[in-house]
Amino acid sequence: MSISDLHQLFLESAGISTDTRKIRSNSIFFALRGPNFDANKFAADALEAGAAYVVIDNPKYVIDHRTILVDNCLIALQQLAHYHRNFLGIPIIALTGSNGKTTTKELIHVVLQEKFNTKATVGNLNNHIGVPLTLLSFDRETEIGIVEMGANHQKEIEQLCRIAEPDFGYITNFGKAHLEGFGGIEGVIKGKTELYKHLAARQKVAFINADDSTQVQKSNSIKTVSFGISNAKADIQFQNLTNEAEVGVMLRDQKIVSKLVGKYNIPNICAAVAIGTYFEIPIENIKSAIAQYTPTNNRSQNIKIGKIEIISDAYNANPSSMEAALKNLSLSKAARKLAILGDMFELGDESPKEHTLLIKLANDLKLPTIFIGPSFSAVKDRFEHQGFYTSFDDFELNFKQDLTDTLILVKGSRAMALERVIPLLEKIQQKVN
What we know:
Blueprint: H1 3-11, E1 16-17, E2 28-30, E3 33-34, E4 37-38, H2 43-48, E5 53-56, E6 67-69, H3 73-88, E7 92-96, H4 101-112, E8 118-120, H5 130-137, E9 144-148, H6 156-164, E10 168-171, H7 179-182, H8 185-192, H9 194-201, E11 205-209, H10 213-218, E12 223-228, E13 236-240, E14 247-251, E15 254-258, H11 266-278, H12 283-292, E16 301-305, E17 308-312, H13 319-331, E18 336-342, H14 351-364, E19 369-372, H15 374-378, E20 388-389, H16 392-398, E21 406-411, H17 421-432
Parallel strand pairs: 1-2, 2-5, 5-6, 7-9, 7-10, 8-9, 10-11, 11-12, 12-13, 17-21, 18-19, 18-21, 19-20
Antiparallel strand pairs: 3-4, 13-14, 14-15, 16-17
Helix pairs in contact: 1-3, 3-5, 4-11, 4-12, 6-9, 11-12, 13-14
């Protein structure tokens, strides 16, 4: 079956399913394979659950005319997504970077929604499977699509760009994320700027933060729309707010303030405002969209438990985002502060060094800090510090401190699931009070 024929079936269906536990009636099930699973085995289950067709790549599981046999299910899914992207012909904004991708994506989304029917990546479906699924979620009513692109090695952004063919792109920053896969910070820069190369080849537009010298340097061969606070050459010039307690910016005489926590979110806000301005969203609408956006999913979330205030940023972490979060906490005027940090992953040989540097930073900032995880514990002997726990279970068993009237930062890599700290703190405070 050709991709155009498959696409026609897709248009007549209820969408794509990849999990037999979540089959939608009249959907097309793609039997994807992984290192530890082969969904071809569940083709019959998908049809029984209500799928209209199943796409498989193992002839052993052919059932009847509802079975579509392809050479490779993943490649077929990617080809279908690419075909659908060109079928719709809508503007696509691609977004990548080491930190702040999802928050920035959501800010851009709410801003553009003020004028356009906009759809964006749901959650973090930002890899070689998630990007195709995102593109296939766009329909004839969609006017602008926003596609988040994640990567942990080089050539990955290049591949995702071939699938999505973005018309616009933005790289949030270049930080110490996925160092093991990228091969160091220079590898991160090379990998992320594959987006710039794709835009340049297609004569498309990059939005750049003019305060980031790497973005300026790496985008010098592309058509750009720049924004910034400290760079007077930026196309869109922002100013800092006079009230240090607020997170936001000034654009000319307009004050734009958000519910986000942390000054490290200011570039994310600026990017959303700049992109909204480019697409001619009225400034009053932009202000309202930014002001009303409430972060979720443990991304710069502000949570109150009695007399405890928690900055929950536990969705993910790397050395760059950890440093920014700690420095932001140190600037708070709260009388009592505490950082609860979990291990950082995918750092390879740099792990001991980066965990050591983070402990040193917390000490230099004079921030009371608790470190959870084997990577932090492996380097604890270099410091006179009592707040080390080898695992969350160790922390849960032994931590009993009264944290009344304390501002607490909770942050760690996704695999640490450090959001578990929050209900634990609530239990501790209930006992104390």
